[in-house]
Every structure is written in structure tokens, then in C-alpha cells.
Amino acid sequence: MLGDYFPFLVYAFLAAVIPASMIAFSFIFATPPQKRVKARFLPFESGVSEGAPKQQRFTVSFYLTAMLFILFDIEIVFLYPLAIVLDALGWFGLVEFLVFVAILGVAYVYIWRKGALEWK
Amino acid sequence: MTEPWWISVIKALIIINLVLVGFAYLTLAERKVMGRMQLRYGPNRAGPFGLLQPAADLMKLIRKESFFPASAVDVLYIASPFVAAFTALSTFSVIPFGPGWEIFGYQVDGQVVDVPISLILIFAIGSIGTFGFIVAGWASDSKFALLGAMRTCAQLVSYEVSLALSVLGVVLMAQSLSLTEIVAGQDGTWWYVVPQFVGFVVFLLAGTAETARAPFDLPEAEQELVAGYHTEYGGMRFGLFTMSEYINLITLSGLAVTLFLGGWHFFFLDGLGPIWFLVKLLALLFLFIWIRTTLPRLRYDQLMRFGWKVLLPVATLNAVVTAILVVAL
């Protein structure tokens, strides 16, 4: 059982070594700049370069999207195991499935009517 | 019979290098195809037909100055391209590309990793990749990078729900999370693209958004965001982000082939296993390039509305209908 994951460990090791070596190369083979100007290290800005603002505020929609994602992702986490055994469970499983989706549907209609899905 | 461990090691080496070469030539193919579609030639200077262009790009990226923005968080700034590239590279391992062979009496499986939950493994590792993007934008400490990272995160997160739900129909029909068994379930019958056509379309749309390609390339909308989360990156570190995007695209196309298009099967001509897989993979990749040259970019509110109000209900309905049919029939 655990032996199934051995090839994945090998593959993941290779998948880690290759990007790591590329990052190492980006240090080793880098061309040093001809002349160091302070402005080139300032964050990119269209117009005046004053550095990034330390306090960034974001519209609440981003936070709302994150919360909705967690809710619906949990839905999927529950549905996947059910999906595999659904045929074995038969009608009982199907009713459970439909009740679960129906409860979720109520919540979905609620957040839709509340306008949480509108990007403002 | 299971394969000996050293065959797994050799196979992992071969496959990961094939994926890397595939990525290198996908960038060239994309530029060539886009060039032809826009009535130009595309890169044709380095080598015959521009075939050495990927090598030239690699040399150029590696020779670039090692650059740190003034106020960047150094460790995270360096680590995030690594995370993005690592998660992208490691997911391709579970995709089956052939029936498995017996070579000199040794069993060789048709994929690198055969675990019973390979579908979950792909989604789980793929979700970690989001961290690479958002941490990159945050650690560069630049206005555009941070905005790009927030957008990337919100978009990936919104479409991941629909992506995972669109696959649920296939899982219901195959009753397995193992990609090998899902491919086996399509042998000698209809590919799942026929009964699961809605799921296939949702998968392609959500997948385009997941890999941040046009028309969903909001994370790097040049006109408003400069370059998105990797604004402050240069050289090979920028290259690693590009690599992760293209390899994610390859993995996603491979997953679509496996789940919906019958994997390495092709009706009665099954003998050519990996060739059919490659043909289907290239056809899907061409489709993605074609979409990119054809469609203009969406607005951000349109993107979010489409993801939450169209794709999500459609994917859920598809899963419900499939569940009812699976139990009733």
C-alpha cells in the first residue's frame, strides 16, 4: 500500500531538484550589472517610484470569495467519497446525496440573493 | 506483478525529462501557431525553423542579472517560484499514458505512479501551487504584484470548485478515483466525453481559468497589471513561473484526455497506446492555443460572475443528474 507511493517520492524528488537547481543557476550564472543604480531596486510603479505602500487594503469581495471557496470546497470533499460508493448504496445513497445538495442549494440561493456573488 | 523499484526510478527520470522537453517545445509551438494565425512567421532564427529557440531562451534567462527588489522578503521571494514549479512538475506523474508492458521479463507500468487516489492527489498538489503565486506577489512588496496575486488567488479558488465538481460525474460513472481504472472503464465503450459532455465543457472552461490562459488570463492582464504576480521577477525565477503555467496546462490536458477522451485507448486500434495519448494531448493543447488567439479577455466581474453563477450550478446539476442516472440504471 505504502509501497505504491515510492515512485511518487522519486518523482517528487526529481521535481524538487530541477527547479531548485534552476534557482541555483540563476545565482551562479547571473551577469553582474554594469552599474548599480538605487532606482532599479525600487518596486515597479508607473510614475513616481516611492516604494510599495506598507498597508494595502483590498475590497471585501476577495475575502468573501475566499470564504465561499472554503464552503464549496468542503462540499466537494464530502461528495467525492460518496460518489465512489453511490452505486453500492443504491437509493439510500442517492437520497442522502440529494438532501446534501438540496441543503447546499438553499445556501447557494441565499448567498446569491444577498449579492455575495456580485463582484463590486 | 509489481514493477521493480529501479524501473520506477528510470521511468520517473524519462517522464520528467519528456515533460520538460514538452514544455520547452510547447512554448515554441504556441509562438509558432499564434504567429501563423496572426499572419506572421513566429520565431525562425535560432536553428532550422526556430527549433533551437527554447534553448536560446533558457540561456538568456539563466544569464540574466540576479535581482532582488529593495523591500522584498528574500526567502519567500526565492521560494515561491520553486513551490509553483515543484507542484506543477510533480502532478504529471499519476497520469497513465499506456497499458503497461513486459520488457525482458520485467513488468513496466503505463504510468509513473499508480495509487488508488491519483485524482485526489492531482487536485491536492495542484492546490498547493496557488501558494506559490500568492506568496510571490506578497513577497515582492510591489503594488502591481500584490494586486495580481490577489486576483490570481481569487480566480484560481473560484474555478477550482467548478473544476473538481465537473469531474464528479466521471467519478460517479467509473466508481473509482484511480486514473488507471477510469481509463479502463472507457475501454470498449463510449468515452466519458459522450455521456459527460457537459462535464467535459465545464472542465475545459474551468481548466482554462485554472491555468490562467486567455480568455481568463486576468492574473496577468498586461494593460492593467503590468505582469501580475511576477512583475518583480526576472531571469530564471520568472522562467520557473512560466514553466509552472505551461506544465500545468500539459497536466490539465493530460487529465482531460484521461478522464474524458479515453486515455491511451483508441477504439479498435489499441496497440499504439502512448501514441494515441500523445495525439489526443497535442490536439487539446492546440485547442488551448487556438482559444487564446481567438477570444478577447473577460472583465474581472464577468469572470467571477461566470465562475460562480454559471459554471458552478451547471457542474452541480451535471453531478446530480449523473448520480440519479447511475443509481436508476
What does this structure look like?
The complex is a heterodimer of chains A (120) and B (329). Chain A is an all-alpha fold and 120 residues long. Chain A has a domain at 56-114. Chain A is 64% helix and 0% strand. Chain A has helices spanning 6-28, 60-89, 91-114. Chain A is flat and about 75 Å long. Chain A starts with 5 loop residues before the first helix and ends in a 6-residue tail after the last helix. Chain B has 329 residues and is mostly helical. Chain B has one domain (5-328). Chain B is built from eleven helices and two strands. Chain B has a two-stranded antiparallel ribbon with strand order 1-2. In chain B, strand 1 (101-103) and strand 2 (106-108) form a beta hairpin. In chain B, helix 1 (5-37) packs parallel to helix 10 (273-294), helix 3 (74-91) runs antiparallel to helix 4 (118-140) and helix 7 runs antiparallel to helix 9. The longest helix of chain B has 33 residues, at 5-37. Chain B is globular, with a radius of gyration of 20 Å. At the A-B interface, helix 1, helix 2 and helix 3 of A face helix 1, helix 2, helix 3, helix 4 and helix 5 of B.
List the helices and strands and how they pair.
The complex is a heterodimer of chains A (120) and B (329).
Chain A: H1 6-28, H2 60-89, H3 91-114
Chain B: H1 5-37, H2 53-63, H3 74-91, E1 101-103, E2 106-108, H4 118-140, H5 143-174, H6 179-184, H7 197-210, H8 222-225, H9 235-260, H10 273-294, H11 300-328
Antiparallel strand pairs in B: 1-2
Helix pairs in contact in B: 1-9, 1-10, 2-9, 3-4, 3-9, 4-5, 5-7, 5-11, 7-9, 7-11, 9-10
